[in-house]
UniProtKB/TrEMBL annotation:
This is Glutamate dehydrogenase. PROSITE patterns: GLFV_DEHYDROGENASE. GO terms for biological process: L-glutamate catabolic process. Keywords: NAD, Nucleotide-binding, Oxidoreductase.
Length: 421
């Protein structure tokens, strides 16, 4: 992307608001109602300071956006990324409101971001940063207030530091305050891979409707982190052929297929999938427009926009990441007849996994791994069927519109009875 293109596509909040306003037109909402739906209830901005290994104080900014609590406590992940902004965090928290509503979870939407490159920190510095972030926001979170979880560049180790710090500072022993914890702290082993599992399950449901099945289909995945790597594993296990993957350093394509175990090995030993030996090295821009059956953007937002949407050569797109398509890209792909499984369904396996973990912690019960997996997949199937029915009844609309109509209507009903809209 050129720098001009980057500026034009870079505001996730603008993109998400455009998507919401489209739903507003369909549901006949007026401006005041759209303002009530798009405005976050609270955004907490904090200054986080750590003492670096060089003895100098380093200062970072973090945010927690609590978008909407009509359906329950705020729920959503924490992102550590050098480019994260307040607008982006608000937009991501709004996406969480629709996602939790669509999946009928007892949650509103929240999200956090800390503007930091975690790769530039030592482990000790990362621990300080994680603990100090919780010190700054602990008054605003809790198992029945706001429940953070992992997102980009955060994992079960960071959730452990969060929980430990929260316990010390609040005096409350309440592990359900965070999800995505390690099993030893009340986590659910399924949560680690539930986002990738759900992405592949929805890809299968959509492939059955639009491509005549998943088996033998070619798949390209952008991003090889938590979501992308587990998605690659489950696509391979379901008989699809992963022909392309990438990470922040670039990508690799091999029309004969890339082996999941080998990709993991290459990533572990060299730091990037780009070093996979058998295949052609490509940039992320090239990867996105390579011919394939299924394309899964599983890294960051706004990567498919009006400049590359006309060049996409995939028959189906499954949004692993949050907000990977701009509103313009939605229109272009709809015109071109390329179905898009929206983020609020496709990547919801993560938060449904979190829900099982949270419910387990609160009830003091143990749902075993198989039952947790079944619950996640059944919830997602139910949401898929609901969306598909709405998609057929709306007429000339795309799957995102159908999903958002279902999700937004549910939030509106809850806000209406509370007298908030
Ligand atoms: N982890 C989870 O449970 C969930 C994650 N998501 C979404 O999935 C997406 C990925 O999240 P995770 O896998 O958790 O993050 P992660 O931090 O584990 O992995 C991110 C991956 O994206 C790659 N990446 C970063 N910048 C890139 C760029 N400019 N081009 C190409 N690749 C790039 C990184 O190298 C890494 O492979 C995000 O949009 C996140 O919000 C959504 C639901 C749940
Ligand atoms: O597991 C969760 O609570 C939320 C995960 C998340 O941030 C997301 O679905 O985007």
């Amino acid at each position: 992307m050129t720098s001009v293109e980057e500026v034009l596509t870079s505001n996730l909040y603008v993109q998400q608001t455009k998507k919401l306003y489209k739903i507003g037109e369909i549901l006949g909402l007026h401006e005041d109602q759209l303002t009530a739906l798009s405005t976050p209830e609270r955004v907490i901005q904090v200054k986080i300071q750590i003492k670096g290994k060089d003895g100098l104080i380093k200062t970072f900014t973090g945010w927690r956006s609590q978008h909407n609590s009509a359906l329950g406590p705020y729920k959503g992940g924490v992102r550590f990324h050098p480019n994260v902004t307040q607008d982006e965090v608000i937009a991501l928290s709004m996406i969480m409101t629709w996602k939790n509503s669509l999946l009928q979870l007892p949650y509103g939407g929240g999200k956090a971001g800390v503007r930091v490159d975690p790769k530039s920190l030592s482990r000790e510095e990362l621990e300080q940063l994680s603990r100090n972030f919780i010190d700054a926001i602990y008054k605003y979170i809790g198992s029945d207030i706001d429940v953070p979880a992992p997102d980009v560049n955060t994992d079960s180790q960071i959730m452990s530091w969060f929980l430990d710090e929260y316990t010390k500072i609040s005096g409350k022993i309440d592990p359900a305050t965070f999800t995505g914890k390690p099993v030893d702290l009340g986590g659910l082993s399924v949560r680690e891979f539930s986002t990738g599992l759900g992405v592949v399950h929805t890809a299968k449901l959509a492939a059955d409707k639009f491509l005549g099945g998943l088996e033998g289909r070619r798949v390209i995945i952008q991003g090889f982190g938590n979501l992308g790597s587990f998605a690659a594993k489950f696509f391979q296990e379901n008989g699809a052929t992963v022909i392309g993957v990438s990470d922040s350093k670039g990508g690799v394509i091999n029309p004969n297929g890339l082996d999941y175990n080998k990709l993991e090995e290459v990533k572990k030993t060299t730091g990037s999938v780009v070093n996979y030996p058998e295949g052609k090295k490509v940039t992320n821009d090239e990867l996105l427009v390579t011919e394939t059956d299924i394309l899964v953007p599983a890294a960051l937002e706004n990567v498919i926009h009006k400049y590359n949407a006309p060049k996409i050569k995939s028959k189906l797109i499954v949004e692993g990441a949050n907000g990977p398509l701009t509103a313009d890209a939605d229109s272009i792909l709809k015109e071109r007849g390329i179905p898009v499984v929206p983020d609020i369904l496709a990547n919801s396996g993560g938060v449904v996994g979190s829900y099982v973990e949270w419910a387990n912690n609160r009830m003091g019960e143990i749902i075993n791994e198989d039952d947790a997996k079944k619950l996640i997949l059944t919830r997602m199937e139910k949401a898929f069927e609901e969306i598909y029915k709405k998609y057929n009844s709306l007429g000339d609309q795309d799957l995102r519109t159908a999903a958002m109509v279902v999700a937004v209507e549910r939030v509106i009903r809850a806000m209406r009875v509370r007298g908030l809209i």
